[in-house]
Amino acid sequence: MSPLRWLLVAGGFAGTLVIIRPGGASFHWASLLPIGLVATNAWFQVLTSKLARTEDPVTMHLYTGWVGTLFASLALPFVWIHLGASWLWLGLGLMGFAATVGHFMLILAYQRAPAATLTPYLYSQIAFAMLGGWLVFEHVPDQWSMAGMVVIAICSAGGAWLTVLERRSSPEPAAA
């Protein structure tokens, strides 16, 4: 990775810190969960991109799904809350189905394109999370959170722009 790409990664992390605001009045230990989620998700993305080059997508998806289900099941005794309404179960099922299809599509995408090309598209999660938070929980991010999201989006767009420049400057292989 080039120094500019590392700078963009650091900028994205700085945007995350602006959103979380460690040391602020509203900061508590649960605020570290998003950082853990980002680290886990980054590891998962790297592993998926590496395995997608050599493994069958259906087999890989099946094994990752079972391993994820196993680890998530270990946490159930600590987080279980009885869901009485059937629409909540339907929502959970829909969420699981969407995640399953999304992960399979991600495996297929990693087979066809490098991670640097796909990563900017993954940042669209920010907009969808904000939209979902507004529609479901009626939550609108404050100005600092919006500023952090803008920094993350700018760094993501910079990464996409850098990928385009690198592809244009790399020599095309000679036709046989």
User: Low-confidence stretches at least 5 residues in length (pLDDT < 50)?
Assistant: none
The percent of residues in helical segments reads over 70%
Sheet with most strands:
none
Q: Could you say which structural class the secondary elements and strand pairing correspond to?
A: mainly alpha
Number of H- or I-type helical stretches: 7
Mean pLDDT: 82
List the helices and strands and how they pair.
Layout: H1 3-20, H2 33-51, H3 57-79, H4 86-112, H5 115-122, H6 125-137, H7 143-169
Explain this structure.
The protein is mainly α. The protein has one domain (3-73, 82-168). Helices cover 77% and strands 0% of the residues. The chain has seven helices and no strands. It has helices at residues 3-20, 33-51, 57-79, 86-112, 115-122, 125-137, 143-169. α5 packs antiparallel against α7. It is globular.
Distinctive features:
0% strand, mainly alpha, single chain, 176 residues
In short:
The model has no long low-confidence stretch (mean pLDDT 82).
